[in-house]
Sequence to fold (275 residues):
Amino acid sequence: MKGNKMKLQKIGLIGGTGMGDMLGWGNAIVTKKTARTPYGVVDYSVFPHTSPPIVMVSRHENSGEYLLPHKLNWQAYMYVLGNKLENVDLILTTSAVGTPYKEVGGFEQGDLIVPSDIIDYVQDSYTFARKGFSDSLAFHRPSTDLLCPHLRQALDNPEDCNPPHLILANSIKGPRFETPAEMKVRLADGVDVVGMTTAFPEAVLAGELGIPYAVLCGVTNIAPAEHNGMEVTEAMKVMLPKMKVCILQAIDWLVENEHPDDCPCRKGREESVFC
Fold:
């Protein structure tokens, strides 16, 4: 990409329990914060002495409560990352997914995948718009680059300028897995991996904020799942070391290869009502 470079000042990271320890920041100085937003209260952590500083949100934990996928308050924690509260330059996330490819060859449990596009089957409304706060310019954003090419390159393979085109499905609201019939539809539509309502709402809201966003997916089950939630959780734990390497390498690469100002993900940054 051409254009002026944007020096990273702060990175947003969305993950699960133990993410800070996983990345080797267990002994680092951390500031615990609580923010009251128009969408709800959010607990989060700031690592001020990493380079660059990291703002971390635990997607499924807030106020001492574990939140299932259908109970996530995407607007609240994305507001914290994108508003003047923290105003991060980019957002990296991790997510557990399933794959329908057991019988046709392809991904297996334990694989890491960086999707380039998303299909939304849930058809819910993911937006910061609310009564008295619905500027048409701010909330009508293109969806051509919800998953930032620059960040995808950093997560997938920094040496590869053309990472593979893989599709993530915002498949089901949860907290259940897909039926066999639902998976046949996903497979026919060209979906590579499926997930519950995590990455897609975040990507849409990041688009409204004008913040580059990408997700590192870990395959925890072969869908339609015969696994239970505990087995999926254990599979995710096994993948954490690989995810650690990938996230840390991506951050290092992004520091050395500063984000171009003309990245399509950032086109709406100046127009965003949050900046």
Observations:
- The two ends are 24 Å apart (CA to CA).
- The mean pLDDT is 80.
